[in-house]
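Sorry to interrupt, but I need a hand with the structure work. Could you write out one complete protein record for me, on any chain you like? Could you add the entry underneath, on a fresh line?
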Amino acid sequence: MPEVELRIRIAPSLAEIPAETWDACACPAVKVLDEDNLSPELSTQGYPYNPFISHGFLHSLEQSVSVGGRSGWQPRHLLAEDASGQLLGCAPCYVKLHSQGEYVFDAGWADAYERAGGDYYPKLQVAVPFTPVTGRRLLVRPGPQAATIRGALGDALSEITTASQLSSAHVTFLTEAESCLLGERGYLQRTDQQFHWHNQGYATFEDFLSALSSRKRKAIRRERKEALAAGVEVVPLTGSDLTEEVWDAFFRFYMDTGSRKWGRPYLTREFFSIVGATMPDKILLVMARREGRWIAGAINFIGGDALYGRNWGAVEHHPFLHFELCYYQAIDYAIAHKLARVEAGAQGEHKLARGYLPQTTYSAHFIAHPGLRRAVADYLARERAYIQAAGEELAAAAPFRKDLAEQE
């Protein structure tokens, strides 16, 4: 098969790229037959739909100036086109002037390099801003040339870094396969862990509870009861229910949490209006109301096989309400809609007791300076060993019944 002739170029905005063109690489869909109801449904060819790499989500960040402007995230998306100008591959890429909003922490590397007289910033970042969710980052159209195009995007990223005299390029929350591919091309490999809930074919939330140890089962029932004890009502909203009044309330919650946790929230108020209008059926907003007033909420995005929990906030404190809105309601939804898992965001060992198990995440890093590269490589070798050991220890402490584990 003849090699495809590729041209790599950079687009400073997704506004230059038609949504259907980008999504042909990011979210390729084909018609398949749903055997349950014999109706045609959209399914992603080879890749379950991931809302965060879609044109709709990424462009909403740009339109709302959550990225661009003075945010320190300057869009510089990589495009791989054939001789006719058809887009065959792409990568959501940004020039970064800091290391905020990434959830893969390299501030120590920056400090070391700058103490040695180097300039760590700007750097390149292939990522979904402010979103610690695993997904493809080297996006290609399905076809026999997919592996070649994916490799070309990885090579182009490192070549641009070197040619532009940047310190580094980072590809975060990519798939394990992409991490291995970039590792073969000289990128350093890093791992971390999150906690995901996995659906074992449960028909109801009680089915899930029955798989837990008696003590954990009772604790969760108590938490769910106490979360609503003060007359709190939980209201799930999606689609046309996502009104501006609802977004105003949720943004108040988001600002409260963001201001306390990292000083300056990353997402603008406009982002929620734009993304809510762009992809309303891919959003599940779980809101809490008491005495007719919205008091808390959690936003989720709906993927092809997963529910992705993102941000939460509240203006009233009620015991266990955070767990109810962010974890238990997400499990309820995943069971009802037969989703394979719930990904509830970064960090949080407290999720383990609620049925969320440790899951390895991956990132890949191209470090241009040989000395810094050697130092980071040595550090990452030790860090990977620690992450693996910690994951095994946490998995052994999972709350599931031991008799069920022995039957598997």
